[in-house]
Structures are given as C-alpha cells and as structure tokens.
Amino acid sequence: xxxxxxxxxxxxxxxxxxxxxxxxxxxxxxxxxxxxxxxxxxxxxxxxxxxxxxxxxxxxxxxxxxxxxxxxxxxxxxxxxxxxxxxxxxxxxxxxxxxxxxxxxxxxxxxxxxxxxxxxxxxxxxxxxxxxxxxxxxxxxxxxxxxxxxxxxxxxxxxxxxxxxxxxxxxxxxxxxxxxxxxxxxxxxxxxxxxxxxxxxxxxxxxxxxxxxxxxxxxxxxxxxxxxxxxxxxxxxxxxxxxxxxxxxxxxxxxxxxxxxxxxxxxxxxxxxxxxxxxxxxxxxxxxxxxxxxxxxxxxxxxxxxxxxxxxxxxxxxxxxxxxxxxxxxxxxxxxxxxxxxxxxxx
Length: 347
Fold this sequence. Notes:
Blueprint: H1 2-17, E1 19-21, E2 50-56, E3 59-63, E4 71-75, E5 91-92, H2 101-105, E6 138-144, H3 145-150, H4 170-173, E7 175-182, H5 194-201, H6 215-224, H7 232-239, H8 248-263, H9 266-273, E8 278-280, H10 281-292, E9 300-305, E10 308-316, H11 323-328, E11 339-341
Antiparallel strand pairs: 1-2, 1-5, 2-3, 3-4, 6-7, 6-10, 8-11, 9-10
Helix pairs in contact: 6-8
C-alpha cells in the first residue's frame, strides 16, 4: 500500500515538473545560464512543444530532443504571450488521471513578471536621465588590483598571458577603476527596465546592452579598468552610471580623468614606493593633503581584506574637473581600516 502511495507521489511530481509549452519566439537555446555558448546554433521552433524542466532566475531549462546537450537555457520571454495576456505562458495541458496540471500550474511560477527583483525601480522614459545636472555627491572606488586578485584568482582580469611576464603592467603599480557611484548609496538603476536590472543582479553582465562608447574612451577605459574583460564597465554603468546625469561616454571620461589624476599625484607615487610594505591611514591622508590640498585626506577611506589594502574610497563633490576641488567638496568620512599592506603582484 505504501509503495503505491509513494509511486503516485513521484508520478505527480514528475508530471508537474514536465510542463509542455509552445514557444512564442524563435529564441536561441543556450548550453548555460550565462548564454555564452549555443552548440549547433539551436533556435526554438514555434511549431514544436518543449518540456520545461526547471525555472530559475528569469530563465527556463528546457529539453530539446535530438540535440547535444539536450538540456538548454532560454529566457522567460521565449514562452510569453506578452504583457497583455493574463496567462504568461502558452501552456499545453499534459493529460493525467492522477492530478490536474491546470490546477498545479497556478502554483508554479513560470512568468516574465520580474518585479519581485525590482519593486523599488520604476520605468520613466519621459527623461533619459534622472537629472540634467551631474550628481552632486559621488564616491570614487579605486581598487589595488594585486590585492583584488588574491581573492579573485578565477577572474579573467587576474590571469596573465605567458607573453606578458617580465613586461611592465599598469594595473600592478597603479590604482584601477572599480566605479564612480552617485550618492546616496541607494541611488541605483535610474530609469532602467526590469529585465536589464535582473540580468545585472544575476551577474549576466555579458548580456547587458552595449554602451556605445567612443574608440578613445574604450581605449583609455581598458587601461584603467581591468574588469573591462569581465564586462564590469557594463555593470557599473547600469547600476551606478545611469544615475550620474550624463551619457556613458561623459560618465567614463570623468571617472578615467579622476583615476589618472590620482595615479599621477604624490599619492600614486607613495603607493608605488611602498609596494610590499605596510602603510597607515594617517600616512595616506597626509599625502592626500600634500597632493590635493589641506583637508582632502579626511574624504578618503581605506578598505582592507586579510590585512591587505584592497581599495581607496574617495568622497567627492561636483562642479569641477580637478580632483582636488572635488575632494574638498566631498563629505568627511570615517575609515574602519587603519592600516594595511600594499600587495605586490603575484599569488
């Protein structure tokens, strides 16, 4: 008797999981969730039904018979009838004498409604940017790349070609750009659609829209932002840059200029001379005062991890191209890290 009950339960679960759907778009079917590979360039056929195996992070894992691999990932929208439909997917009932799939579908979340991830963000296309003016207060996050790679060795930007050994590398002796963040810290994803926000939050940065940067800006950005190879620039623009008040070119031109001014200053020289040594917050703030003007050091935070200095956070104002002026207009801040080692290249 117990065996029959268990068998019925397993069969019920199997039927619920294997909902059959007709696609509404001829979407590409990818090998992985990041959509970086599509073996045999497979696309959905609108005349065929597909079995949904799993729903996860705005995507469906489906079964495509005869393909290798047979399990493929596609976006929710590939099975959507559109926002005007009360039924988000074109579901074909699987006949069963045990359970009603129609009833169970009401319990299964297979929907293109991504608002649970983006409740606090509203689309507003009346203006392309939140304000015509540049954000009044900003935080410039600069990374010490050697320390970052100690805990992110798997990242593309932390892997060196065998041909690059022995050659000078900018990122190994300079601070690099993490991001320029309009303040307050909850000032995020300005006028971004929910689908893009969801992709960003799920770290599908390679799928984010191209920014249309000029060739000159691209060249400069690749130098000061090693994370460019991991599409960090797309993530930073979508999450933070859209709230800066300009287009992507101006946003990154401003950020690059700030990085270059910092690295070309006495502060940059101080860190290069102290690679492999421990430095204190007091020393760092003092050299900022000497380089950018009295009081600017109080706008600087040290960020540390495992005894290593990982980042400098500069609290800035606006209305100038000069980093010293921006620092003087920024807010004074505390720093919980009081000292750390300036890590050298290599693991």
